[in-house]
Amino acid sequence: MMDSSCFTESIYNLIPSDLKEPPQPPRYKSIFKTTIKNDMKKIKTAMKTMGPAKVEVPSPKDFLKKHSKEKTLPPKTKFDWNQPRKPAVPLRTDHPVMGIQSGKNFINTNAADVIMGVAKKPKPIYVDKRTGDKHDLETSGLIPKYINKKDYGITPEYICKRNEEVKKAQEEYDNYIQENLKKAAMKRLSDEEREAVLQGLKKNWEEVHKEFQSLSVFIDSIPKKIRKQKLEKEMKQLEHDIGVMEKHKTIYIANK
User: Fold this and answer.
1) Angstrom distance (rounded) from CA 75 to CA 100
2) Percent of the residues in the chain that have a pLDDT greater than 70, as a whole number
3) Is the whole-model pTM more than 0.70?
4) Which whole-number Å values give the CA distances from 119 to 113, 114, 122, 126, 137, in the listed order?
5) Environment class of residue 98 by beta-carbon count within 10 Å: exposed (0-12), middle (13-18) or buried (19+)?
6) pLDDT tens digits, one per residue of 90-110
7) What angle is formed at CA 168 by the lines to CA 165 and CA 170, rounded to 5 degrees?
8) CA gap 212, 231 in Å, rounded
9) Interatomic CA distance for residues 125 and 137, integer angstroms
10) CB within 8 A of 235, min separation 6: which ones?
11) How far apart are CA 61 and CA 58, in angstroms?
12) In terms of Cα–Cα distance, which of 193, 205, 201 is closest to 249?
């Protein structure tokens, strides 16, 4: 008869296990743990009396008394019968005065006011739809108000003054630059030379761009990548130079 313990064994138990569990890293411990613990103890000790310890305790003599919160009535005064009283209520037999007529002719008065008065001008409106939608004409902008002003189209005085200051500052700056150019032997490009240089830069950019467009779609080798990067760098530099030439109208170069 076979023992039942042999059935509980597994063949995997015969394989030697050399695997070891890695050591657990040390657990993080804050350096402020002791300080926070002591502070919490101090706070708890100070609040053991259901609040701050320095609260003034009420006196036993100031206890709540009966009717202490009831509203007090004003002091009683003696009634004086000689005080002035309100007018008496009219009797049932009293009747108002009736039959009084005015001699004013209200019809003639109203007619005279209308005839002598200034007629009220109708408010100007405009209709923008065939359904009859009405709008205020004065605030619509259709009436030429501003072009009829005396100072319409005239440059304001402060702008003229500002333009003169800017012009004067530009002249001073140009004189300063001319003096420095004479000292540093700088040459100013004329408009024709500047335009020629600008057109040359644009032509070079078109040639480089055309060469860039002729590259293959798939860049699968190092020489192709290097050539693509080189063309991109040249195009970027040419774009920068063209932007500088277009932005600045006055350009100086050093004499060699």
Assistant:
1) 53
2) 84
3) no
4) 11, 8, 9, 21, 20
5) exposed
6) 898 988 888 888 888 999 999
7) 110
8) 6
9) 5
10) 205, 208, 209, 212
11) 9
12) 193
User: Token pair of 178, please?
Assistant: 């001319």
3-state secondary structure of 186: strand
- Counting every residue written for the chain, the total comes to 256
Nearest residue to 215 (alpha-carbon basis) of 228, 203, 204, 206: 228
Q: What is the pLDDT of residues 79-88, one digit of tens each?
A: 888 888 888 8
User: Alpha helices of the chain — where are they, by DSSP H?
Assistant: 33-46, 106-116, 157-184, 191-213, 222-247
Q: Which residues pair with 125 in a beta bridge?
A: 136
69: amino acid identity, one letter: K
CB 215 within 8 A of CB 224: yes
- Residue 198 CB neighbour total at 10 angstroms: 15
Residues 6+ apart with CB under 8 A from 201: 238, 241, 242, 245
Adjacent-strand bridge partners of 186: 254
Residues whose CB is less than 8 angstroms from the CB of residue 177 and which lie 6 or more positions away in sequence, other chains included: 252
Q: From CA 84, how far away is CA 211, in angstroms rounded?
A: 115
pLDDT tens digit sequence for 29-80: 889 999 988 888 776 665 566 666 666 778 888 888 898 888 888 898 888 8
CB atoms within 10 A of CB 187: 13
Which residues sit opposite 254 in a β-bridge?
186
Tell me how far apart the alpha carbons of residues 156 and 99 are, in angstroms, rounded to a whole number. 73
Partners of residue 187 on adjacent β-strands: 253
Quick one: tokens of 220? Answer: 């699968």
Burial class (CB in 10 A: 0-12, 13-18, 19+), 201: buried
